[in-house]
Amino acid sequence: MDRVLIDCGAGASWDPSMGHLAEAMAEAGIDTSSITMIALTHAHGDHVNGLLMPDGRRAFNGLRKIVIGADAVEEFLAEPVLEQFRSLLAPVNGGDRLADHLLAVDIPGHARGHMGYLLNTDEDDVLFCGDLIHVPVAQFARPELTWAYDDDEAVARATRIRLLRDAANAQTWLAGTHLGRPGIGRVVEDAKGYAFIPVA
């Protein structure tokens, strides 16, 4: 059975304050070498550069597969340092099943091949939504607001409006990179639009 990590952060490629995933996982009692599959939401550096340690070594020694949206493969491989992972890439499309309880979900608009991953625990659903939301304080209340880093702002807007509505109706947990600590919570409708209620 695979042990799956969704995205792996920016590593130390952006800022000295980043690149501490291994320490955070150790604090949580997770050995990085136990991760056998990484499912990437998209190929932007703040989601993929953590495949490498600051000194250039591979961060996950037990890694056997990197799941990525089929349309994101080209962008991933355009970064020369990531070419070494080519043989591990496993392109997926929305609706593909990664494991018994984990499903790939198309979340178009932000980046080519932007993919979410829906985890069903038999009690709750958790949608790992990548960069569906960038500015939580604004985009939950007004999901129509777009962001300059979205490849296609109109598509990203429509996707966000639909997924927030669906998550609120189904009481699906959302987990996302830019949601702020703790990065997971529920979406509820309110008079202005939606509100994000972080997990306690």
Describe the structure.
The protein is of the alpha/beta class and 200 residues long. The chain has a single domain, classed as 4-Layer Sandwich (Metallo-beta-lactamase, Chain A). It contains five helices and eleven strands. The strands form two sheets. It has a seven-stranded mixed sheet. It has a four-stranded parallel sheet with strand order 1-2-3-4, with no helix packed on it. Strand 2, helix 2 and strand 3 form a beta-alpha-beta unit. The mean pLDDT is 94.
What would a concise description of this structure say?
By secondary structure, this protein is α/β, with parallel strands linked by helices. Helix content is 19%, strand content 24%.
Task: Give the tags.
single chain, 200 residues, alpha/beta, Metallo-beta-lactamase, Chain A, seven-stranded mixed β-sheet, four-stranded parallel β-sheet, 11 strands, globular
Largest sheet: 7 strands, mixed
| Contiguous helical run count | 5
Number of separate structural domains: 1
Amino-to-carboxy terminus distance: 30 Å
Portion in helices: 10-25%
CATH architecture designation: 4-Layer Sandwich
Tell me the Rg in angstroms: 16 Å
Could you please say which CATH topology applies here?
Answer: Metallo-beta-lactamase, Chain A
Keywords: Hydrolase, Metal-binding, Zinc
Protein name: MBL fold metallo-hydrolase
Organism: Bradyrhizobium barranii
Family: Belongs to the metallo-beta-lactamase superfamily.
